[in-house]
Hints:
The complex is a heterodimer of chains A (about 200) and B (about 400). Chain A has eight helices and five strands.
Amino acid sequence: MPESFMAQWxxxxxxxxxxxxxxxxxxxxxxxxxxxxxxxxxxxxGDQMRVGIKVEDGKISDLRWLTYGCxxxxxxxxxxxxxxxxxxxxxxxxxxxxAITDALGGLPEHKFHCxxxxxxxLRAAIDDYLEKNGMENPYKGTIAKIICECKGVTDQMIDELxxxxxxxxxxxxxxxxxxxxxxxxxxxxxxxxxxxxxxIYGK
Amino acid sequence: MDRRYVYLDNNGTTRIADEVMEFMHSYDELYGNASSxxxxxxxxxxxxxxxxxxxxxLIDADSSEIYFTSGASESNNMVLNIxxxxxxxxxxxxxxxxxxxxxPATIETVKxxxxxxxxxxxxxxxxxxxxxxxxxxxxxDDDTALVSVMVGNNESGTIQPVKECAKIAHSHGAFFHxxxxxxxxxxxxxxxxxxxxxxxxxxxxxxxxxxxGVLYARSGSPLSPFVHGGHQEKGMRAGTYNNQxxxxxxxxxxxxxxxxEEEHRKLWEMREALRKGIEERIPDIIVNGSxxxxxxxxxxxxxxxxSAEGESILLYLDLEGIEVSTGSACATGSLEPSYVLLAxxxxxxxxxxxxxxxxxxxxxxDDVDYVLEKLPPIIERVRAMSTRxx
Lengths: 203, 390
């Protein structure tokens, strides 16, 4: 058989390694009392993620996670856990899905959203930690990216609107924010972000 | 047990049987264009006519009713195209009805037609995925041109009441098509017994080569070409004959006919051994479809593992040398899990966590034992990782 016929594994070796040996998994009965917990995704969508963090001196000192999800979700959350431990809250809050997928050596395009869940759950855990301790949340909103320039609509705004259930389709989003009503150039990117959020929050 | 290679995706495709491979190669010299008048062409054509006879014998049809295609996908498209042509010509009836669990080759084609303005209805199924005959009765009316219901489902293994469906269609003067791709070689399939006007099949699902299949069209049923061009297949399907593939299909048809009872018995034995073994060893599982031998294709076992996601299970099994398929969205590239299981009322989470084991003639009871050794710790592991606990 020509060498080019030899099957590669469906994902990279790094993904495979993390899939076979997931790091920092939240084991049953383990003595891990988290300072903050975040959960995103829904079973209806086929992936759900829970992240627990311990915080010491403004840094993530330990992290555990669970996922109902595919190999990419398992591997990217495992990788995220390795990257996040030791980071300051600010650094962790700004950990991006592409940083995680890069560290994994890449994921197929349709699997990218699996890695989005890991960092979203991590941010939710940080939010939870700050809220529980009555601390100000200086990070919320700092990672927003403007998608609709005409109306100043950010990905963060869309995320919040979908999460809270205020918006469940494009028309509602337009009514709420006015996005894509002026030049309309952002329409596709708005739709992409909206669908991603609807999927993540199982709406 | 020592590491094994266990292929349990025979509903996906089968290994070409040794007898079929050998048979095809024994005619390697028969490369003539079967439409040519010279000796080599006539010899090639004789082999094709032999194969046509074998397929006819397999499904209880006449040789003149067999049309070679590239496979069941094309056959399904061809049938739907015949009715599209008639609807376009304004000749009579306009409605097309298919079951909601048909193969994508049918479902996606009628969705395409629907998008272009054709009248299409989907008939619902019950909890085991069997067509709801009362619902079908209501859907079929005097404006119905075609009803299409498969013999056995590729995912759940559920066997459809095709005879009753054909009766309902015919009582309103509609034609009846059945996709028998998954059933051939596993349960008896007779176009006369079912009273089918059209039937599709693919060689590669019963140990024949890929890329070759058949459309059966009852003598007198409407016909028009889907692939236009040369005059092959009485002008109904253009393209130079794929001699070796057709000979392989003929041989596979012969084997399927001769081995039917033995194959059924063996597949059902392995399927049941695996089902019972899983039920004994793994808590909280759901078997999808039916465990009634008369309602399930013998080699198909579809199981949902609550709180475990299907793609992860599939890939952990793959690392152990066991090859299966899943209804999880993650494995398909879409965000939707198996529409077949959802149509039968299965919860979305359970559809994501479904695994299909499909047996073939090259599997043995040792394969079943190996799966029963490897599967329970994998499920335990995936469940331990899960946000959701059973």
